[in-house]
Write a structure and sequence with these properties.
- It is a single chain.
- 25% of the residues lie in helices and 24% in strands.
- The protein has 322 residues and is α/β, with parallel strands linked by helices.
- It has two domains: 137 residues, Quinone Oxidoreductase, Chain A, domain 1 (Alpha-Beta Complex); 137 residues, Rossmann fold (3-Layer(aba) Sandwich).
- Strands 3, 4, 5, 6, 7, 14 and 15 form a seven-stranded mixed sheet that branches. A six-stranded parallel sheet has the order 10-9-8-11-12-13, with helices on both faces. It has a two-stranded antiparallel ribbon with strand order 1-2.
- β1 and β2 form a beta hairpin.
- The radius of gyration is 20 Å and the shape is globular.
């Protein structure tokens, strides 16, 4: 089978002769047709921060976890051969052609959609739904989302869908802000050109926001996000840091009595069915985030696009089509 090997930071080698894994009792084998790149893959790809300290090369297919494919071998009566699925490799090494998924990660995809590859987006969307469930209602709330990559854009869209009165979207990559407006942001802030905290203070007449999401992976984004909630407001920390220790304005945060909720991808499987069904229904606008689509032999280019979006306008949820 085909697999991606991260030889060294920003160096990918495509392997085509790896053995196909075998499913155990109760498991299935999935041939992947579409693989999504994630913000959590950026640090491992670039070797930034604590990722510079790992032993290179890591395992084949390292850190891949957004897979769409078809069941080609089954040892589980609930999952017949030929079923189209969203799945996650049980070893979390899913940048490969064939995976044996964690059984709980298997979710049927709609049989009648024109482009099943777009449903790679259901996995990260499920993580956003889990975060919103953990942080409580937003009806009538003033909100801010720091970071407008695919995750941040999904937060922006869903906050409006769930009743937020205002959503301020911020990013240091200017072209992403038009996407934020398209998906419902009431205001956008180009944080590469101004002080984000002061911009939000001006937009809110000094009241700041009730709820803020940090959806970036850079330390300064976390600091800015922590300064945006009003007194006793809420902060959702979602981004994946490249460092074991980041600066954080603890004195302000404790004095402000900010409620902090930290969420990651674990537990997304509980929300995958909802994500799939809504993407196939009234949240279909989010499927436009799945771009660009690149063939397997352009994997190096795909990772460069995802890691350096300022240099690649239009690169949102980058997907490899096998």
């Amino acid at each position: 089978m085909r697999a991606i090997l991260f030889k060294a930071p920003r160096q990918i080698r495509l392997i085509d002769d790896m053995p196909i894994p075998e499913p155990d009792e109760g498991e299935v084998l999935v041939r992947c047709t579409h693989l999504g790149l994630c913000g959590g893959n950026v640090g491992p790809y670039t070797g930034a921060g604590h990722w510079a300290e790992i032993d290179w090369p890591p395992p084949l297919g390292w850190q891949g976890h957004e897979s769409v494919g078809i069941v080609v071998e089954s040892r589980n009566d609930d999952w017949p051969v030929g079923t189209r699925v969203l799945a996650q490799d049980k070893r979390f090494n899913g940048f490969v052609e064939y995976i044996v998924p964690t059984p709980r990660s298997l979710h049927c995809l709609p049989p009648d959609v024109d482009d099943v590859g777009q449903f790679v987006l259901a996995q990260p969307l499920a993580t956003v739904l889990r975060a919103l469930a953990a942080t409580g209602p937003v009806i009538g709330a003033r909100c801010a989302v720091v970071g407008q990559g695919p995750i941040g854009l999904m937060f922006t869209y869903l906050l409006r869908q769930f009743g937020a009165s205002r959503v301020i979207a911020a990013d240091v990559v200017p072209w992403r802000l038009e996407w934020a407006r398209r998906l419902g942001a009431s205001d956008v802030v180009d944080a590469s050109r101004c002080n984000l905290v002061e911009a939000v203070r001006k937009l809110t007449g000094g009241e700041m926001v009730d709820y803020c999401v940090e959806a970036a992976h850079l330390g300064h984004a976390l600091v800015d996000a922590a300064l945006l909630p009003r007194r006793q407001g809420r902060l959702c920390v979602f981004g994946v840091s490249e460092h074991d220790h980041d600066a954080f304005p603890w004195n302000h945060t404790t004095a402000n009595e900010t409620e902090i909720v930290v969420t990651r991808g674990t537990g997304w499987m509980d929300y995958a069915r909802l994500a799939i069904d809504r993407l196939n229904g009234d949240w279909a606008a989010l499927l436009d985030l799945v771009a660009p689509r690149l063939p397997w032999d352009r994997a190096q280019e795909a990772f460069e696009m995802y890691a350096y979006p300022a240099d690649h306008p239009g690169s949102l949820k980058v997907v490899l089509d096998l």
